[in-house]
């Protein structure tokens, strides 16, 4: 472990395919406090949003399958990675049955391991709470970009996976509407660990 890293059980199991099998609304709050890992860099998931494909006007899969959103329609337990604003990558865990296009956007992490590498990648960060406090920030901090689209989280085929290190989700996760969406604002499909200083937004 590097200087500043926090305790992380290296033997923690990966989440199973069955974990991702329900739809995103069910999986999203269960992902809180799990650990996203890429190589030796890791962070605890503290903020997520669910996107529900064909019934959700805010989802990239609301219309039809395209080259961009193809991974969302694949089997559960894979990554959907997309490019936004012409400069940022964002990562999602694909959930639900194949063909349904349900996914959970990872919005914020609490850094756990590989902090020196995170600082190298996040040159604009000025404090630790800036490292992973947003979907684009955490993707940059963990070195995740377009080549990871479709990666299998269960087998960690490209070195990226999600672990269960025994920390349970909060008994009462905070909820809100999703951030930055124009359609589907009525759905309270954002969940987060209340009071965590690494959140993208506190409310």
Give the strand content.
25-35%
Number of domains: 1
Q: Return the CATH architecture.
A: Roll
| Helix percent band | 10-25%
- In whole angstroms, the N-to-C terminal distance is 33 Å
Report on the architecture of this protein.
The protein has 203 residues and is α+β, with helices and mostly antiparallel strands. The protein has a single domain, classed as Roll (3-methyladenine DNA Glycosylase, Chain A). It is 11% helix and 25% strand. The protein contains 3 helices and 8 strands. It has helices at residues 24-31, 115-121, 135-141; strands spanning 35-38, 41-51, 79-84, 88-95, 102-113, 160-163, 174-176, 190-192. Strands 1, 2, 3, 4, 5, 6, 7 and 8 form an 8-stranded antiparallel β-sheet that branches. The longest helix is centred in the N-terminal third of the chain and has 8 residues, at 24-31. The termini are far apart.
């Amino acid at each position: 472990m590097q200087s500043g890293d926090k305790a992380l059980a290296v033997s923690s199991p990966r989440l199973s395919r069955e974990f991702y099998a329900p739809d995103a609304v069910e999986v999203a709050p269960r992902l809180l406090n799990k650990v996203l890992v890429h190589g030796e860099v890791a962070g605890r998931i503290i903020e997520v949003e669910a996107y529900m494909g064909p019934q959700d006007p805010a989802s990239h899969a609301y219309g039809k399958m395209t080259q961009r959103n193809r991974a969302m329609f694949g089997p559960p337990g894979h990554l959907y990675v997309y490019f936004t604003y012409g400069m940022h990558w964002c990562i999602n865990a694909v959930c639900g049955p194949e063909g349904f296009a349900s996914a959970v956007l990872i919005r914020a992490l609490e850094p756990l391991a590989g902090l020196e590498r995170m600082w190298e990648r996040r040159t604009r960060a000025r404090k630790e709470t800036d490292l992973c406090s947003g979907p684009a920030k955490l993707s940059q901090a963990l070195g995740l970009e377009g080549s990871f689209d479709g990666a299998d989280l269960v087998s960690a085929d490209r070195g990226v996976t999600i672990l269960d290190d025994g920390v349970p989700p909060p008994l009462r996760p905070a909820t809100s509407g999703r951030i930055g969406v124009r359609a589907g604002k009525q759905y309270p499909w954002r969940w987060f660990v209340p009071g965590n200083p690494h959140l993208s937004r506190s409310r």
